[in-house]
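Checklist before submission:
- one chain only
- standard amino acids only
- sequence pasted in full

Submission:
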Amino acid sequence: MIQTSGRNKRDITALFIMFAMVHATNALYITFIPLYLEDLAFGAAVRGVLLSIGPFVSVLTQTMWGGFADRSKNKVNVMYMLALGLVVVTTLFLASDFAPIDKILPVSIRPYRALIFVTAALIFYAFFQNPMLPMIDTISMEYISLQRPRVKYGLIRTMGTTSYVVMAYIAGLIVDASPAGTKTIFYMFYVVLALLLVTLFFVPPIAGTQSTRKKVSALALFRDKWFCVMIVIAFVVGMAYGFNASYYPNYLRNELGASETLLGINTAVGSMLEIFLFIIVHKIAKKTGIVNLILICIISGVVRWMSPVLTTSIPVLIVVQFFTQPFNWALMIYAVAIYVQKAVPEHLHARGQTMINMVMGSFGRIAGSLLGGWLIGMWGSGSEPRVYLIMTIACAIILVFAIVMFYRFGWRPNREPDELRLEEGSVI
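Returned file contents:
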């Protein structure tokens, strides 16, 4: 029976705000951290290495947090730890450009203050922030599965996208107007994290699925052929996205002359369509099927990464991003998240979500960031379109691979496999 109680409404409101705050931190980081590193006078190759350190750390820690959540009595408590950790991370970022701190540092390391604190901040940012996204997905979907409210997961996820759009735009305006420049985002981090910590008091408790049963190894995930193919797809999608996240803001500002305000608008516009799509995403998924949705997402990536190769017009690039970004990243994550929730055993849900997120957001991003930094360093500034061509080819190859493998597993364009079919009464 569908619940409409006051407590149910309060729980849903808390989930909405939790999504909003977590995705707001993501908007600040993705849009402005590459620019902040450039403002600290780090070159392209160094930025590539720095931005790949964090994802490498999350490779080692994502499954740890997922296993911890599966075994915890309340997964929301894990979110508390992650949010408090991000408060410390924000302070480390600020310390990287805080000259008075040199008074308490040994003379020998003072010239490297920025490098030391930024490196530490990026390491711990990955340690605490990257697990947040699969964690809030798991908390929300398990709450919906247990309570079956009127609100579906796709609508809750819409709040994350809306917050991402609004925060990117507002932050661009504030950074442009602030004499502190990109450093201003860290004060905004404090505000967002304070709101997140307050909201977590009202998020309904969700017990870990292994808290009262025998522990199961995460290696059991790799017995599923569909899961293994999606791991490969996630890596290539993450690689292209990782290069774009590390170098696209700098390319727009340095080579195409975009301001910080325009960068914020670019990030916001790229996510606007997500708001509408996530309202109806459950209908889209039922109509197309999960496999077809994943293939559509890969095709959108081919189009998106090809656009900087063909044009230097900022308006054209923004239009292409508007239509492709939702499918290229957010709906891809949604499709895989639904797969894990349906096909992976219940006691491996959190680790399944974190493992996919780890491969897409860590392994892939490491490869894209390092490869992109190395190629730009070798070819020189302005060579980003050549790297985008490489990413386009990689996505085209993975598209062919996905079609071949899915076809071998029994998928057909007009027939969804039983393992992934969404039932008529699905609450996802």
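Reviewer check: Residues 6-205+219-420 form a domain with the Growth Hormone; Chain: A; fold (CATH 1.20.1250.20).
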